[in-house]
Design brief:
Structural class: mainly alpha
Number of helices: 7
Radius of gyration: 38 Å
Oligomer: single chain
Distance between the termini: 110 Å
Strand content: under 5%
Shape: elongated
Largest sheet: none
Helix content: 40-55%
């Protein structure tokens, strides 16, 4: 007697026999590089062929120190370290001197290119009010701290100073951008970015500018 909803020993709920369908060829031959189907173990990857032997981890701190010393190489004496330090300092000074001289290979990325060099020449060939901002601001702050009675007049003076510097910076940025567009019509420099570069250089004291100015004040930049 068959009960509804139960499986018989020799068939399923619909009375079918217990014979199962043969496994398809796709399940029998699974490539090793693909993920194995459900019910089969995942094939292991042979990573030993790609990596070399790994040294065992040190068991003690003394062994770790010995391994670090071996990897660091021979220990230098005091005189050798002094000579190496002097050579490294000389190399740094040489690179800085070449950068200050304006050699293209030693310039920072922001200073490289003929467009940036031309913009620097324009800034260095004129007297900029932006260069007086830091000295004037420090002077006003010193006066305010030394004579507290003039604090009422320092704040308006600072605002006037900032307004003058902003006007000078905008005028300089437009002048540099127009001159660059006229000399290099195919340049890809943005006008705003180039204007900020020129204003930033003009705000520095002349002796502190890097690279060093290659034109004098009043020179005509072609």
């Amino acid at each position: 007697m068959k009960l509804l909803g139960r499986k018989n020993d020799d068939g399923d709920i619909n009375g079918n026999t217990g014979a199962t369908e043969p496994t398809s060829e796709v399940d029998q031959d699974v490539p090793a590089t693909r993920t194995a189907p459900k019910g089969r173990p995942t094939p292991k990857r042979d990573s030993a062929k790609r990596r070399g032997p790994v040294a065992p981890a040190p068991m003690t701190s003394a062994e770790a120190r010995a391994r670090r010393k071996a990897m660091a190489g021979p220990k230098l004496s005091k005189e050798e370290r002094k000579v190496e330090k002097a050579e490294r300092r000389a190399q740094m000074n040489e690179r800085r001197e070449r950068m200050m001289a304006g050699e293209e290979a030693y310039l920072l990325p922001r200073d490289q290119g003929p467009v940036r060099a031309y913009a620097r020449d324009i800034v260095d060939s004129r007297r900029n009010l932006l260069g007086l901002f830091m000295p004037a601001a420090l002077f006003l702050i010193f006066v305010m701290l030394a004579v507290p009675q003039v604090q009422l007049y320092i704040s308006p003076a600072m605002l006037i100073l900032i307004a003058i510097m902003a006007i000078d910076g905008i005028w300089l940025a437009r002048k540099v951008s127009n001159a660059v567009d006229e000399k290099y019509p195919d340049n890809t420099e943005g006008r705003v970015k180039l204007g900020f570069y020129a204003a930033g250089r003009a705000s520095q004291l002349r002796r502190m500018r890097a690279p060093r100015p290659r034109v004098n004040r009043g020179d005509k930049v072609a």
